[in-house]
Write a structure and sequence with these properties.
Length: 360
């Protein structure tokens, strides 16, 4: 593209009214050229209605002298014209759905490898585009199963700036390895510290190191870590099957626009529900948040989670979710129901065993 192609930008002058409306939200064109603006429309939850901003007509010319060629100006301007500048208010339900679809492959508009959300993916307008994504998501979930069996898979989440980030979670074997390392470190009273902790000084500190190390090894690594890994492995297999089932309607009614919308609603919402049901199981992600305690601040289970802010990065249990009032409510109710059902099942099992012993 030659320098004179900059004149194509002048077509925006015809949209004077749109430019005036966007004046208060003017985007610094120079900042875009330097790559300083990071929020992009592809990273926006599909449940929101984005608001776009057009630059004033004279903005490209204002900074054209700082650009090496007309190609750079045109490319930069194209980037700006679809810039997501002012996100609308996102409901707690939308945040919850977005978080759940980011945590596992499967959402029709969610491309987790590229860490982006595409509101209207053109690739899925074709037969192979739709079916191919279903099969790819199923394969990714199978891979995650083996990763969670060993040292953990990758998950995606939104940070406090609404950007999609990537993080790792512990796997089953990794949790068991951490357990033995923690026990060995505790039994050495801090002489061996594989995780690089500060060496305790004096008798009192070493005794404290022993008890804290044993607590972390048993409850943190073995019970929470290993138990959570089992739940994640089950999720991976469930979602892999769910993705393969989706390929059937995608190959048939998915050939029609309304059919594609129906399939997306059913299977995306179905994945969110399935994810919720596994999260509230004992040792699941939600269950651990609800049953968390804070002895230093004398916060009991349920209360500790309720008082947590929406974004809390100091603890891995809350780091990758937006802990909104909606999430707290449904996870608390679900986890308590899960406790009730678990106790009921164990109670029936105990009574059944006693009847067998007495020959009744």
């Amino acid at each position: 593209m030659q320098l004179q192609d900059i004149s194509s930008i002048s077509h925006i002058n015809n949209h004077t009214n749109a430019a005036k409306m966007a004046h208060n939200n003017e985007v610094n064109f120079q900042a875009v050229l330097e790559g300083n603006l990071s929020t992009h429309v592809n990273d926006v939850s599909i449940t929101t209605t984005p608001k776009f901003t057009l630059l004033p007509p004279d903005t490209p010319q204002k900074f054209a002298s700082n650009i090496a060629s007309g190609r750079d100006v045109s490319a930069a301007y194209k980037k700006v014209e679809n810039q997501y500048v002012e996100p609308g208010k996102i409901s707690d339900l939308s945040k919850y759905k977005d978080d759940q679809l980011l945590s596992n492959p499967g959402g029709d508009h969610y491309y987790l490898e590229q860490k982006k959300v595409v509101p209207h993916p053109k690739a899925q307008e074709s037969f192979w585009g739709r079916v191919g994504k279903d099969i790819s998501d199923a394969f990714s979930n199978v891979k995650n199963f083996f990763k969670d069996l060993f040292f953990g898979s990758k998950i995606r989440y939104r940070d406090k700036n609404n950007q999609i980030q990537e993080a790792g979670q512990r796997g089953l074997i990794g949790s068991v390895v951490d357990f033995f390392k923690g026990v060995g470190s505790a039994l050495s009273f801090g002489m061996w510290r594989p995780d690089g902790e500060k060496e305790p000084q004096g008798f009192v500190e070493r005794i404290g190191f022993f008890f804290s190390g044993m607590k972390e090894a048993i409850f943190g690594d073995l019970i929470q870590g290993a138990g959570q890994s089992f739940i994640h492995m089950g999720e991976d297999l469930i979602f892999a099957g769910w993705n393969l089932i989706e390929a059937i309607p995608d190959a048939t009614i998915g050939n029609f626009h309304k059919g594609r919308k129906l399939i997306t609603n059913i299977f995306d919402n179905g994945q969110v529900v399935l994810d919720y049901l596994t999260d509230i199981l004992p040792f699941g992600d939600a269950w651990q948040r609800v049953h968390s305690t804070n002895l230093k601040e004398l916060k009991l289970p349920i209360i500790s989670n309720i008082k947590m802010p929406e974004h809390y990065s100091e603890d891995a249990r809350w780091r990758h979710v937006r802990n909104t009032p909606f999430r707290k409510t449904i996870e608390t109710i679900g986890s308590l129901l899960s406790d009730f059902m678990t106790l009921k099942i164990l109670g029936h099992t105990k009574l059944f065993s006693e009847k067998n012993r007495h020959g009744n």
